[in-house]
Specification:
The complex is a heterodimer of chains A (696) and B (94). By secondary structure, chain A is of the alpha/beta class. In chain A, 44% of the residues lie in helices and 13% in strands. In chain A, a hairpin with a 2-residue loop joins strand 17 and strand 18. Chain A is extended, with a radius of gyration of 41 Å. The chains are: A alpha/beta (696), B mainly alpha (94). Chains A and B meet through helix 6 and helix 7 of A and strand 2 and helix 3 of B.
């Protein structure tokens, strides 16, 4: 390492100083500067670090006024006073009107209460509690010894109690007499004492379900959450390992959060937040609150024992619905996450639709179609997106999107199912087209993760985003004719198309092995489970054991809690609410989307190639071969020869299966002397006729 | 019979008055049987034995107390009732 000239001078001067050539004060003084790395860390002289003043000197404008604002401001003061007096007046009148009724109740309950109280005192002083029953049992079995020893025990116990009760009563009597004689207590004091005594007796004498005073308000229950309430509620859950309230720690002060209160607690070691979340009903009972005011959940990013308990001021189903920010959005980039849900606390949950596939399930009336429409509407606001929507319910829930869709069908007819199947076929075919394109760009470094990016989607190279929505998909998957193919196609497409910019959104009622192919169910990475009836349905949508882990969509009620569901696939699985969008809002959004696209569905992709018409091919070959029929093996061989690309590897069995799927049954065919299984031309032409008539 | 005949005479107390007295006495006796079911044995006068070092009293077996007759009757009735209930439950196939 070379030394710069200026530094060399300095160094030589230092050496001079060291050897004493300079006027150094002492030969032993050592310079340590050479060992320094970096600049000096001390502050300049006379300036000490931040003082208490610096830290505490807040901006005076942020200070809380010394006298509360409602007291200094005359308008607020008047309003507050008026509100308080109004309430007082109401309470007074309310109870005044009912006073005779209260009096009658007291007249009945007070004597009884006095009698009960005296009896209780006597029973206690005699120490009869528990002992009496045992003595009776001894008498019933003619057991004199036991009776006597029990009575001895009781008498011993009662001795001390009598010595307490009798002097206390005497003292009270003497005190009362003295007060009466001295006239220390004024008359009203005696009356007040009497009234208090009578009221206490009446309270003791009233049945537990008949309060003497009527309830004034029957409004919603507003609760200010306190640490004691949270601890008590958690202990009441009787979760193994959580018995000592002191072990439940609060990570920060309980505070307002949105329209409610939030308490973040650290549970005892070994107790999971999901243990609490899965007992939400019990938890709500421990708080004495309606179920949909209590929202326990795990705090994302913390260890599993950190629980956030959010208590809303009113049941969330009564909260005004949150407004969706995309209602006013000019446009959306589907490659970014955008607001799609909100939590009970009205926090926005952003979700994406690219590189994802959606499964949305729930019982009828749970709001799943609404959520599917939300996704479609959001996607529509990106003009690059090609939308294909199939409503198999036939109620036209998404009709407003029809002008934007490159393909739209809605109805109960088979033709609609056929179109949905065609869309899946098209998606599969599109995957084959897009794969090589992405590969090419990946080689050029333009597709970093071998995935379609926002830039590639805009480049007009045939990689624009595609969103396919199938509502009531079980209608397609359980279709006797299209079901199997649809299942296989969706499964492979869901696996392949994710990286290629094709998103499939499946809306269904409870998916099971029949209504949704189980493999397809497994491959979907974004799930939203609306209200379901049971654990099985819950786990069908969210995945096995999610119910056990506390993610329970069974807690939501159909219709009342429409739009609520459990969202999985975006960070922690949690309760989420789909934004409420009514028909008018949806229509406005769709109109805006249409404007964005210049009035026409943009980006229509390459149309679906007419599928290989196997029936036509076979019919042609059979006609060439004499017009009767052929055995499977020769037929397969001729097919291979006719179109090597399409029928490569075709065998007699595979051709037989292919034709059976099209409605041609295997039949005995005589050629020359040999009778074997094969296809008859008559059957094939009939199948073609049937198909054509069905298409029209 | 002579007593009843006597009560029906216009000079004696009426029947309902006697009935009330009898019921009250019976009630008090029932209360005593409930509250103090055992009484001093009358056979041995509460000694538990005959003579100073004699055998145990044949009636109270040396317990010095005996069960009151009222309680004895009640115990018999309660046991019979419980047995009947058990039998009926067994017969109905529970």
């Amino acid at each position: 390492m070379t030394t710069p000239p200026a530094r060399a001078d300095e160094q030589s001067a230092r050496i001079l100083r060291l050897v004493g050539a300079d006027d150094a004060p002492d030969a032993e003084s050592v310079l340590v500067e050479d060992d320094q790395l970096g600049g000096p860390v001390d502050l300049p002289d006379g300036r000490v670090g931040p003082t208490l003043h610096d830290i505490t000197n807040m901006d005076p404008s942020g200070r809380v006024p010394i006298v509360p604002a409602w007291m200094t401001d005359s308008t607020q003061r008047k309003a507050t006073t008026r509100a308080i007096t109004g309430n007082l007046r109401y309470y007074l009148l309310f109870h005044l009107v009912r006073a005779p009724r209260y009096l009658a109740k007291v007249m009945v309950y007070a004597p009884r209460g006095a009698w009960w109280a005296a009896r209780d005192l006597w029973w206690w002083a005699r120490a009869e509690e528990g002992n009496f029953q045992l003595r009776q049992h001894a008498a019933s079995t003619n057991d004199a010894y036991t009776w006597q020893s029990l009575d001895k025990t009781r008498a011993k116990q009662a001795g001390g109690r009598w010595r307490l009760v009798v002097p206390a009563m005497l003292a009270a009597l003497v005190a009362l007499t003295v007060l009466l004689v001295n006239h220390v207590v004024p008359a009203w004091g005696w009356w007040a004492g009497l009234v208090a005594l009578v009221m206490a007796c009446a309270r003791r004498g009233r049945p537990v379900d008949k309060p003497i005073v009527d309830r004034v308000t029957k409004g919603r229950k507003f609760v200010k959450l306190t640490a004691e309430m949270v601890r008590n509620a958690l202990i009441r859950l009787k979760i193994q390992g959580m018995a000592d309230p002191a072990e439940i720690k609060f990570l920060h002060e309980i505070h307002r959060d949105g329209p409610g209160y939030l308490a973040t607690t650290e549970l005892p070691e070994g107790v999971e937040a999901s243990d609490v979340a899965s007992r939400r009903t019990k938890y709500a009972s421990a708080f004495r609150l309606p179920l949909d005011q209590v929202w326990p959940e795990h705090v994302p990013g913390e260890h599993p024992g950190v629980l956030a308990t959010w208590i809303s001021n009113v049941p969330v189903s009564q909260l005004p619905p949150a407004r969706w920010s995309l209602l006013d959005a000019r446009r959306v980039d589907v490659f970014d996450a955008f607001p799609l849900f909100h939590t009970p606390r009205l926090q926005v949950i952003k979700a994406g639709i690219m590189a994802r596939n959606w499964l949305i399930g729930g019982q009828p009336g749970s709001g799943k179609t609404g959520q599917g429409r939300n996704i479609a509407l959001a996607a529509a606001l990106d003009p690059r997106v090609e939308l294909r929507i199939y409503g198999l319910k036939g109620t036209g829930d998404m009709d407003m999107l029809e002008p934007i869709c490159s393909d739209y069908a809605d109805g109960l007819e088979d033709a609609v199912r056929r179109k949905a199947l065609d869309a899946l076929r098209w998606a599969r075919q599109e995957c084959e087209v897009r794969g090589p394109i992405v590969k090419k760009f990946a080689r050029q470094g333009k597709a970093p993760d071998n995935k379609v990016t926002s830039e590639l989607a805009s480049a007009g190279v045939g990689l624009h985003p595609v969103v396919i929505v199938i509502d009531e998909a079980q209608e397609l998957y359980t279709h006797p004719k299209y079901g199997k193919e649809a299942g296989e196609l969706s499964e492979s497409t869901v696996k392949l198309a994710r990286a290629l910019g094709i998103t499939i959104v499946i809306l269904t009622q409870i998916p099971d092995a029949n209504s949704i192919p189980s493999n397809l169910n497994r491959c979907v990475n974004s799930r939203f489970c609306c209200s379901v009836a049971d654990q099985t349905a819950n786990d069908m949508i969210l995945g096995t054991s999610q119910y056990k882990n506390g993610h329970r969509a069974t807690q939501f009620r159909p219709e009342i809690d429409a739009g609520w569901g459990i969202l999985s696939g975006f960070g922690d699985t949690r309760a989420a609410h789909a934004y409420k969008v009514d028909g008018t809002m949806a229509r406005q959004m769709a109109e805006r989307a249409l404007v964005l696209r210049g009035g026409k569905p943009a980006n229509r992709s390459t149309p679906l190639k007419p599928p290989r018409d196997v029936l036509a091919d076979v019919a042609r070959i059979l006609t060439d071969a004499g017009g009767v029929g052929l055995h499977w093996e020769p037929l397969a061989e001729r097919l291979r020869r006719a179109d090597p690309a399409a029928y490569e590897g075709a065998t007699g069995d595979s051709v037989s299966a292919l034709l059976r799927a099209e409605g041609v049954e295997s039949a005995n065919v005589r050629i020359g002397d040999s009778v074997r299984r094969g296809a008859r031309l008559a059957d094939v032409t009939r199948a073609i006729d049937e198909r054509d008539s069905a298409r029209v | 019979m002579t007593l009843l005949a006597a009560t029906s005479t216009p000079n004696g107390p009426p029947v309902w008055w006697l009935a009330i007295v009898a019921l009250t006495v019976l009630g008090i006796y029932a209360l005593i049987c409930w509250w103090r079911p055992f009484a001093t044995c009358g056979v041995c006068s509460g000694n538990g034995s005959r003579g100073k070092r004699g055998r145990d009293c044949w009636w109270c077996h040396g317990r010095q107390v005996r069960l009151r007759w009222g309680r004895r009757v009640y115990n018999w009735y309660a046991r019979a009732r419980a047995a009947a209930i058990t039998r009926r439950a067994a017969a109905s196939g529970d």
